[in-house]
Amino acid sequence: MSINFNFTLPKPSSSSWPDGEIWYAAAGPLALLIIVSYVYSSKKKKDTIETDDEEIIWKPASDVLLEEEKDEMSLEADAHYAEELQVQEALFASQNTNININKNASTSTLLKVCKICLETQESWQMFTNSTCSHSFCYTCITKHATTKIQDKNRTISCPEINCKSTLDSDILRLIIPNQTLINWDEILCESMILESHKLYCPFTNCSVLLINDDTRNIVTKTDCPACRRAFCAVCRVPWHSEFSCKEFGKLKGGKKEDEMAVALAKKKKWKKCPNCNFFVEKTEGCVHITCRCKYEFCYKCGVKWSSNHGGCRPRS
Prior knowledge:
This protein is α+β, with helices and mostly antiparallel strands. It is built from 7 helices and 15 strands.
């Protein structure tokens, strides 16, 4: 395609332009002005030139170079993004494998066997003693602690065979029932009182603990603050109004009530505690008796209990 810029200008007369060179000097700038005007008007109409075959779109060279640069950058960005995706997929697959391995390994280490019920439990369901590291399920250790507290024990021993450790009391307090915890606190408070200051109400349906904080004065008749009944603090029996303590101690069933009590004790085979003189009845178990005053004796012969006790004869 070619554009023809040929045109003809009338040459001025020689009178106006005597010298031909002056005409060509003037015609040069005029022709340049006409060409620039034509190009500008054509661009104003449309940045295209129609030919017989196709339409040609004119763009500045800077725009073309910028678009090519953008295309190259887009291709590079896509390639980089695809590479990052591959790396992330590989890392995710590796991490997934590690998680599964760690999960399987941790599952096997979290399972423990209770030494009491022999059931397999997860570690969070197990009580692990801090002093000996023996583990038991919370259900079994709660029952064990409750039984020990019912037997008036201040400390709870580890149920593991041949283990001499005691259970962690701070953790036990979090798992045992509230009423059992109250009973345990009462036992612990009672253990802080000297034996010489302790006194129990002799009536079996009361048996409340009393404290004699003034041992210098001998107290005989005492009213129980719980059941409001009178008893002798020296003889530790219901109040003997007609006898002194010395006279009451010499009685051998002279009174009808005493005779009935002695007869009932013989019939039931009750034994007297050598320490507090209270009657004790054994319903089941061995002959090793622990009285409520904490004195341990043999139910068969009545002597103080020892670790090598045995082969005793019934006392008369």
